[in-house]
Amino acid sequence: MAVRIRMKRLGRRHRPFFRICVMDQRKQRDGKAIEDIGTYDPMIRDKSQRVSLNMERVDYWISVGAQPSENVKALIRKVKLNKFGSVKAPPPLTPPKEPPPPEPEPTAEAETTEESAAATDEAPAEEAAETVEESAAE
């Protein structure tokens, strides 16, 4: 019988929690374990508090031939060396961008000035047409 030290997932969706167990390699991930030897909670902010292992039992099981999985091997190494790293600080908050000020809508005065400008544009055109007619008549 091949014995492995691996993690069994518990907890709900988006809130994982793991038990570190000694299991037969052929059992399913969440199946019956031979022995529970620790826990791992990745949701705890303090990295040194995430893992709790019974190191005496870990050493015993490794001495009798149990093979730790890759993830459990990394956790055991971190516990033995007491090197968990540190949590990165969240990025600084920045205030939201203010929307640009709205463009002012044309007022009634602007409309009247546009109409008077259009009327003045028409008047020179009419005078020019009259002068062309007069010169042609002569």
Brief synopsis:
With 138 residues, the chain is of the alpha+beta class. The protein has helices spanning 55-63, 70-81, 108-137, and strands at residues 3-12, 15-24, 35-40, 51-53, 67-68.
Q: What is the CATH superfamily classification of the largest domain?
A: Ribosomal protein S16
Number of helices: 3
Order of helices and strands: EEEEHEHH
How many β-strands, per DSSP? 5
Indicate how many domains the architecture comprises: 2
What is the typical, i.e. mean, pLDDT? 82
Distance between the termini: 124 Å
In the CATH scheme, what's the topology name of the largest domain? S16 Ribosomal Protein, Chain: A
Amount of beta strand: 15-25%
Biggest beta sheet attributes: 5 strands, mixed
- The best one-word shape is elongated
Can you name the CATH architecture of the largest domain? 2-Layer Sandwich
Nearest-angstrom radius of gyration? 41 Å
Q: Given this structure, which CATH class of the largest domain is correct? A: Alpha Beta
The SS-based structural class is alpha+beta
Low-confidence stretches: none
In spatial order, strands of the major sheet run 4-3-2-1-5
What is the helix content? 25-40%
